Amino acid sequence: MSKFLIVNADDFGLSDGVNRGIIEAAERGVLTSTSLMVRQPAAPAAAAFARNGWPVSVGLHLDLGEWVFRNDEWVPLYSIVPTEDAAAVAEEVSSQLQQFERLMGRPPTHLDSHQHVHRQEPVRSIALEHARRLAVPLRESSPGIRYCGDFYGQTGEGESLPKALTVQNLTRILASLTEGITELGCHPGYGNGLATPYREERALELKVLCAPELPGILRRMRFNLRSFCRLSPGPGGAPNAGPAKSLGSSGAIGGPLSVS
Fold first, then answer.
1. Which residue, among 227, 230, 188, has the nearest Cα to 211 in the 3D structure?
2. C-alpha distances in angstroms, 107 versus 96, 128, 168, 206, 225?
3. pLDDT, tens digit, for every residue of 115-125?
């Protein structure tokens, strides 16, 4: 087997600054995929850009709310539907999928969720049902694709960890990955004006993803970059990464705007 890496940015559409950072991470760095938040204000602009021949896979980032750690407990920053209400969740997920198709003109290439709310029931079963219907991967629920969320600049309680967002630390994370297909989660962008606590860390992530030495590191570790839209069903329904495409030497993947 070979090592295949999908570098996926969450929060596409959250703001103009986040959109700009994600686009830069794809054009100047190693980003191959992103997940769109259709309810957020910059979603139409993000989709318009992505529809214009952008060779990056775009999935749906299900957005049911956001929680922050304050006074030793998690409290909602905003809530769209109660995540324990199966009927409300099912209606909202269907609505967001329809909105995605209106914005993008096609179904999503993959599904995941804001703050991983789909890890818990009833969101998980509802999301999994749609993923099966669409024949697309659902994060952490699709055989053959492991998820790595270690490249992140805060603790579980929201304390900043800027030392985690360095080329050195990303290299350590990559070295721990085994053969097969791995989705590496990330959140590049510019945090100006965001209400979310994850702001300054986005620019640090972007800097690492665009580091000129990173393609060489990936080559030495024998990683092949992929996007979700280039996966195909393999034996038993597990995804197949398809023919390998090597990293280019220009700093981007095989040259600007070229991902497989």
1. 188
2. 11, 15, 37, 27, 22
3. 999 999 999 99
From 8, 14, 19, 7, select the one nearest 49 (Cα to Cα).
Answer: 19
Architecture of the domain defined by 3-240: Alpha-Beta Barrel (3.20)
Q: Give the single-character DSSP code of 108.
A: -
Cα–Cα distance measured from residue 256 to residue 29, given in angstroms and rounded to the nearest whole number:
9
| Interior angle at CA 174, CA 111 and CA 146, nearest 5 | 30
- Residue ranges covered by each domain of the chain: 3-240
pLDDT for the residue 244 = 42
Q: Which residues of 170-202 are buried (b: 16+ CB within 10 A; e: fewer)?
A: bbeebeebeeebbbbbbbbbbbeebebbbbebb
Write the DSSP symbol of residue 254. T
Cβ distance 18 to 11 under 8 Å?
Answer: yes
Residues of the chain with pLDDT under 50: 234-237, 243-246, 248-260
C-alpha to C-alpha distance for 148 and 131, rounded to whole angstroms: 20
What is the rounded CA–CA span in Å between residue 227 and residue 239? Answer: 12
Q: What is the DSSP code (8-state) at residue 81? A: S
Distance from C-alpha of 202 to C-alpha of 217, rounded to nearest angstrom = 22
HEC string for 53-74 = CCCCEEEEEECCEEEEEECCEE
